[in-house]
Amino acid sequence: KSLYNTCLELHPISKWNKQMEKFGEMNMFLKETRDFMRRFQTGYKAVELDGAGRLLIPKELMSYSGIKNDVVITSMGNFIEVWSKKEHQKFESDKTIDVAVLAEKVTKKK
After folding, report:
1. Are 67 and 82 in contact (CB under 8 A)?
2. β 80-84/71-75 pair status
């Protein structure tokens, strides 16, 4: 599950494992850390392609994301997002998001 949108994220297992190693270095004595880890990993499912090259999305994740028939797949660099067409259209129609302003903010050197 995405932390930010009603969509699913597909991460290569090698990248996922590296991220889990980093999380393992966090202070597990903090309640916030444990709460974050529980929430972050909720819905995690390891999936594989079937013999025909298809990916079976577990029903509970389809329900969470609103996927019924049509999907939109977007690249996020190291992973991909899988959206229901309806949820993706809602995101795309959000007029409060100015891509030019975001580009300036996220590409500024610190």
Report:
1. yes
2. antiparallel
* Banded model confidence at residue 80, pLDDT cuts 50, 70, 90: very high
Which residue(s) pair with 81 in the sheet?
9, 74
Per the DSSP assignment, residues forming a β-bridge with 83 are 72
Locate tokens 């939109």: which residue?
A: 72
Give the single-character DSSP code of 42: T
- Of 56, 63, 33, 58, the residue nearest 44 (C-alpha): 58
User: Could you tell me which of 55, 52, 82, 54 has the C-alpha nearest to residue 70?
Assistant: 82
Looking at residue 93, its amino acid is S
CA separation for the pair 11, 18 (Å, rounded): 11
Best CA proximity match to 84, nearest among 24, 8, 20: 8
What pTM was computed for the model? 0.82
Q: Which amino acid is at 3?
A: L
Q: Rounded distance, CA 81 to CA 87, Å?
A: 12
